[in-house]
Write the structure tokens for this entry.
Amino acid sequence: MISSIVFINHKGEILIYRVYKDDITRSETTQFCAKIVATKENKECPIINIDGTSFIHITIKDIVVLATTKVNVNVAMTLQFLYQLVKVCRAYFGGEFDENCIKKHFVLIYEILDEVMDYGVPQIADADLLKKYIQEGGLKPELMNDVEKLKQLTSQATGATSWRPPNLVYRKNEVYLDVIESVNVLMSVKGTILKADVAGSIQVKCLLSGMPECKFGMNDKLLMQREPRKPGQTTTDKGITIDDLKFHQCVKLPKFDKERAITFIPPDGQFELMTYRITENINLPFKIMPVYNELGKNKLEIRVKIKSIFEKNLFATNLAIKIPVPKNTANVNTNSAIGKAKHEPDQQGVIWRIKKYPGDFEALLRCEIDLGSTTNQQPWIKPPISMEFQVPMFTASGLRVRFLRIYEKAGYKPTKWIRYITKAGEYLHRL
Amino acid sequence: MAYFGNNPQRGELQELYADLNDLNFEKKKEAVKKVIAYMTVGKDVSDLFQSVIKCLEFNDIEMKKLIYLYIVNYSRQKPDDAIMVIQNFRKDVRKSENPLVRALAIRTFGCLRVPKLNEYLIEPLKDCIQDDDPYVRKTAVLCVPKVYEVSPEICPPLLELLQKLLEKESNALVLANLIQSMREIEVVSGKQIIILNQKIIQKLLLAVDECIEWGQIFILDYLATYNPQDSKQAEIIIERTLPRLSHINPTVTFCAVKVILKYLDFLDNGDLVKNLCKKVAPSLISLLSWNQPEVQYTILRNISLILQKFPILFENDVKVFFCSFNEPYYIKYEKLDIMVRICDSKNFGQVLNELLIYLNEADPHFVRKTIKSIGKIAITYDKALDKAVSILVEFAKNIQQPTEPVQELLIQMQLIYKKNKQMYKHEESLKIIYSIIDYANEPESKSACAWIVGEFGEFIPKSVEKMKEYIDNFQMEDRLVQLQLLTSAVQLYLKYPSQCSILIQQLITSAKDSFNPDVRDRTYIYWRLLSTDPEIVKNLVCFNSGTFSNFSKDLRLWETQDLVLALENMGNISNLFHKLPHQLYKNIKIKVNNQQEVKIYKGDEKPESQVKEQQDENQQNIQKEQQQQQDIDLLNFDDPPVNNNNNNNKSNKTDVFELI
């Protein structure tokens, strides 16, 4: 499988070097560092072959995390493992992952590397679980000598519900659900939709005692068709069509496949229960209508009208619309009724910011752009207009959580909270 | 604590030595950490071996781990010193009640990789494989391939134990590691170790449900290499794999896709196959928009394979391959490549409209590739020709500099004219292309220009002057351009004999003494023929269009018979380079494909075996092509590779798409 895992900084220096198999020499790795990382040449492509050695790597900020191998491994798995490794490190370092904290915690990182991979084969790499038996500065001696506790630990780690420790107790049992949707849309110059999809995610924060079994339901068309209709009840909600769903490892997948029921024993604390993708019947919260005019050799005019298409009682927040301008822009005059628009040369665009934007509302921005003269006669390549926003209590897909039932032996009634929010993913309109 | 100090001077090593032997525990521990830090930056600290292992006597697990790391690193340099630690390991394995310590010891023990130490390892390892604690077992099973690699001769009893464990093990994680470990041994030994039966398959399928994500991947990956006995078994395995399509780890999903696609071949029920395809497609599409570009890339590199065997999966779904503005270029290149492959006589309009947008991108390489793709589509699909030419001509109108895309544009226009000479009339394409002809600065594009001047001499004003310009610089040109110039000049001469006679003489004078034998030969042949029978020359150099209508319509990347094997390796390194494992790795044996026919799954039809037809067709094409080439290409052997495509079956694979 994987021969070694290496952390490299942007100068091509090795920060962490862990070998799992003998078939690789250090000089092969330093060659990679010198050739690829330090020169930034071809660094983009995630897999590079040099003389029979494959270098599979990801780049997190300035750090290259590299796996080397000489055999035909599953690359997707290797990449996924590297990402997971970074995630574990972050969990230990309070979210940080940079050269400083790698140097500071290198002993811990070696311990982690020893545990998450054996003979190049990925092993348990779940941060919450690892924290139980790998701790900075060594484990407490009480635990080391308590054989019963240790047995419990190893059986949890290797068991079927490795993500949840037994015997949790909360005085107040609570569950928080966050439905977060990112809308990706690409509109052509004429305003027709070329591509639109919603990437959704349901985040759960779970503060529950014991071993609760949860059942989760939403207005998924396929699920609702399966449910027996209660007599006398007529629902207008036909449900929505979900293209694809992906679940956290705690969800019982065979049960979902057979009955389309989402059941699970949740991990403790924060986790992502599921992600989904929807391409049909998307309610785009904003429409962008740009007009582009060349007023002369050195003058451009871009007018952008935006319209919000959601209910009046809702508000969008933190809008930022980026209107690209040419490199040789000398001056921009902007004019809009609401928000602030400013030319930001480092972004090569005019950024129009609006703090709060009501539903069913139109606003217009007019930019007059004066161009400086340049020797470069290349026509301006117009990047698309992009937009950022958040609309709380709105889902672009129309998804609604219908129920979250929790069964536990103790029979407590937990408090449940739910929030919806729609954000802009790649919200683009070609100019 | 200094992590990245300067080189360890002799003094520093001495200091470390002193600290390691200090009586103070904290001081020792700091010293061990320093030793590891030096090791990390590549400094040799092996001289401290004895002092370091002495520190093992403390029962501190953090320090123990560090020392083990050190031992693993230097054990092969100091085999004799390493023997001293053996007792420590054996004590840990046998005596410790702490499963973590037992596992740690056996794990490290296995990593020593010193042949003469391995015999001490066998007994403790046997114990660990049968340990009560699953955590120790899962670690122990992975130790076996470590030992096997160094001393296979002492392993038979261990292998027996593994096979027994495979039958009785109930813990999913141990089972997954066991499969992976046995596979590793299979790779090293080249023998089949895993012997499956119905019961074990059942168990593996059950384990997939309970295992951590990596374990699921090992098992699914392994199942993808297995050939089910009958349709029923295939159906069961598919059914049990289906739920994995909803797993959040993209690799698990991808492996599930692999297993399902592979087993489809074994199903009898056509409707079931169709249904399954419908289920697989959306999962696969989700993976394409995965938010880690590196993972996305690996999936994209496998799409061409899936497209070839399962065209049904991406029917009407070109859009998912459209590039986003902010994507890294390595993703964009892949998508471009796939868009050309997925293009057909129905959706070419949609694809061309999208490619049109990419022509505005900033990166010249990407624009170049876009132009190449447009050309490729135009040449492959007759219906797309008009639209493609319109796009290219529109692009040509804005050209003011000899950029990289311009070179490609000229090359593609030459190919398009070769395919259909009448295209020169379309939107005055010839006039516009001729206006940018001076921007050519690469051999291929220059030769394309020379071809255009010769071929369309009668439609181009002052074509003879242009040719003179070229011939004046003849000596400085690349061989490719020289050869084309010879042919084109002769062509022009046949059209305007009186105006060109001096030109031709000038050309022959400068070319006949060329150092390049090809150029010399061609010059002499033309010279002799022209002086004997100009009619023959005419037949040779002025072919009518239609001759080249037989362009390769083959966008297939894989040989059809390789598809099954390639499918088994989906996601692996070899597939990422679009190769079979044995083509990339010398030590891998060629796996013979037992399946007689390769099924291709198309949209509306039922799966059918097309191999034979296609092969026959290919065969015929090749023969035809070869004949034609003998007729026409006798002298024109330096045409771009597209024409010579079918000459040689292998070049099929690499024609216009450059592989890495």
Remarks:
- Chain B touches chain A through 109 residues (CB under 8 Å).
- Residues 605-660 of chain B have pLDDT under 50 and may be disordered.
